[in-house]
Amino acid sequence: MELAENYRELDARYYMPAFSRTTEIVRGQGARLWDAEGREYIDCVAGIAVCSTGHCHPTVVEAICEQAHELIHCSNLFYVPHQAELAEKVVEISGLVGGKAFFSNSGAEANEGAIKLARLATGRKKFVAFTHSFHGRTMGSLAVTHKPAIREPFEPLEPACTFVEYGDLDALERAFDGDVAGVIVEAIQGESGVIPAPEGFLEGIRACCDRHGALMIVDEVQTGMGRTGKWFAFQHTQAQPDILTLAKGIASGFPMGALVARKGLEFKGGEHGSTFAGGPLACAAARATISVIEELLPSIPAKGARFADGLAAWNPRQVGLMIGFTVGERCAEVQQYCAEHGVIVNCAADGNIRLVPPLVITDEEIDAAVGVINEALGR
Ligand SMILES: Cc1ncc(COP(=O)(O)O)c(C=O)c1O
Fold first, then answer.
1. Could you tell me if 136 and 311 are in contact, meaning their C-beta atoms sit under 8 angstroms apart?
2. DSSP state of 228
3. Whose CA is nearest to atom 8 of ligand 1?
4. Which fold has domain 7-56+298-378?
5. What is the position in ligand 1's atom list of the atom closest to the CA of 136?
6. Mutate to test the pocket of ligand 1, among 222, 223, 256, 276 (most ligand atoms within 8 A of CB)
7. Which of 225, 302, 287 is nearest to 51 (CA)?
8. CB 73 within 8 Å of CB 276
9. Can you give the residue ranges of every domain in the chain?
10. Predicted confidence band of residue 1 (pLDDT cuts 50, 70, 90)
11. What digits encode the pLDDT tens for the residues 101-158?
12. Residue owning the nearest CA to atom 16 of ligand 1
């Protein structure tokens, strides 16, 4: 694909400068990307944990094209092709027996839905979330997102939220006051640099929610869809959420989010909705994505371990293909060196490099990427 010659100039003039970017990516295949100058990269970021099946996986491309020829949109006024089958599959892989799904267009929107559902189900108003959490940038999801720099300019936010130190169950216990509808947690904090929950933390949250009649919402927008070697990261623990939220990898890059709620928790007539959510193209892309991930799932632990072994000198935190390590102030410099040497890595918060590659990445690509990252760090 050709970009306009003055692309950067057009962007600077007409697109709001909310992002800082330097590279024009024009093509992707598997775990490879190409920029407008024809340079090739091994992609260890996958559109931030989105392109789960790799770029332009033929099964996903075919499913989208086939559906596009049949019907692009019909609205939720009608039964939507692929929607019910996808809901069945998502509920099945979640393990929330008797549960139901509801689709959205993004992760933030999935969390908005979870917040609404928790309020409806409990009749309570407040939420508890954790330090360094990220749940999205819409007003409700932002209210439960910790990072002051992105939250404070938009205050006052609803719902009211108490932030408790991630991992501190005693502080969580003290945060309940009888009006807490839910606790929202990431099983592994992604935006803050891949910080896994301490052992027993999710089980502790479950017990706390049960004691206080609040709902446990696990945000698996980043950790879900096979990224950690299981369909969902909570499945590495003994805890089951009341509500699970998803997005990112669910449809390989086609915009989509979802929530799955346990048996008995559901939106009824008119309580929630969205024009585009759960449309035919998104559902077709997600069904194809799931069928591909089903095949890939057994290979994820070994691929993750290969990254961790290769990067052992930097003390990585790794669960499946979600890998982070702390490099401090050199983060941006490491990211740039890697890009200049054909490997895309991501500088997450607090000086942490994050790797969330496509699940299709090969051993050869892992070794090549690890080589460049080690070179960057060893300089
Ligand atoms: C854990 C988590 N929740 C929610 C979101 C928001 O998702 P979206 O950007 O699709 O709204 C993100 C995005 O990075 C995320 O990592």
1. no
2. T
3. 107
4. Aspartate Aminotransferase, domain 1 (3.90.1150)
5. 6
6. 222
7. 225
8. yes
9. 7-56+298-378, 59-295
10. low
11. 999 999 999 999 999 999 999 999 999 999 999 999 999 999 999 999 999 999 999 9
12. 222
